[in-house]
Amino acid sequence: MEKINISVVIPCYNEEKILPESIFRLEKFFFEHQDKFVHELIFVDDGSKDKTLNILNSYFKGNDHVRILTSRYNVGKGFAIKRGLMIAKHNNILLLDADLSVRPDELLYNIKKIDFNGVETFIVCGERKYAIPQTKFRIFLGKGFSVLHKIWLNVGVWDSQCPYKLLHNIDYTLIQSLQIDGFAYDLELLYKAKKSKIPIHPITVSYFNVLDSRVTIWKTIRMFHDMVKIRFL
Questions:
Q1: Percent of the chain with pLDDT over 90
Q2: Domains (range + CATH), the chain
Q3: What pLDDT is recorded for position 111?
Q4: pTM of the model
Q5: β-pairing verdict for 200-207 and 122-130
Q6: Edge-to-edge, what's the strand order for the sheet holding 122-130?
Q7: Is 52 exposed, middle or buried (0-12, 13-18, 19+ CB in 10 A)?
Q8: pLDDT at 105 over 60
């Protein structure tokens, strides 16, 4: 099988506790499957106040398959993702969270189902199968948000906020048009893809994160605000 070219974009904000293990997992995965992938890793540090940037620089100094972007101030996950997308050099782009709550191993299941060598453009959107139970509050917020975006935007997937997305041959102008800086960036990406008639393929992935402590009431309110904003962009 011909090797698949892939750029992996990972936004980071105050990730010093989890980065060493995540880096080990990523490097191990691509080393073990170097017969299948030609890859680059793009880490986007979104104004971290801890040692995130120091860890990235110490692990990857001199590595030509890794690029590290930094911001002076924290702007938001959507902003960091867009920066990574804009410099990705490969036509396949994988979006992952820094904690690897969805493992890169999911790629192995994807490549058995998808024709990466075709000219078709598409997005694979993960839909989470929880390997570890979530809190009732987290489940309530997730289901409520899913119902509302289904009614308001109808992007064609139930779990729009799953951190695992694979973009194949996505037009650069669509990436440039993204405006949502926060957590709802996923919805804008999927909504604009659907309007551009880009196929969106949901695929079940295992999700290992125990608790997303960064999901707060304020961030949830902002996500609902952004969902309304996306409709009128």
A1: 64
A2: 4-231 (3.90.550.10)
A3: 81
A4: 0.86
A5: parallel
A6: 66-70, 37-45, 4-12, 92-95, 165-168, 122-130, 200-207
A7: buried
A8: yes
CA-based angle 31:35:39, to the nearest 5?
Answer: 60
User: How far is residue 105 CA from its own chain's centroid?
Assistant: 15
Alpha-carbon gap, residue 212 to 148, rounded angstroms: 21
Closest of 186, 189, 193, 180 to residue 222, by C-alpha:
180
DSSP state of 2: P
* Residue 105, token pair as written in the block: 């191993």
Q: How many CA atoms lie within 13 A of 165 on its CB side?
A: 24
CA distance 3 to 170: 19
Name the one residue in this structure whose structure tokens are 């993960």: 126
CB 183 within 8 A of CB 77: yes
* Pairs from 16-20 (Cβ < 8 Å, separation ≥ 24): 16/48, 16/50, 16/51, 16/52, 16/55, 18/98, 18/99, 19/52, 19/55, 19/56, 19/59, 19/98, 20/55, 20/59
Tokens of 150: 């289904």
* Predicted local confidence at residue 135, as pLDDT: 63
Residue-by-residue DSSP string for 176-193: HT----STTHHHHHHHHH
Q: Whole-number mean pLDDT of the chain?
A: 86
112-116, 126-130, 187-191: least confidently modelled range: 112-116
Cα 233 from chain centroid (whole Å): 22
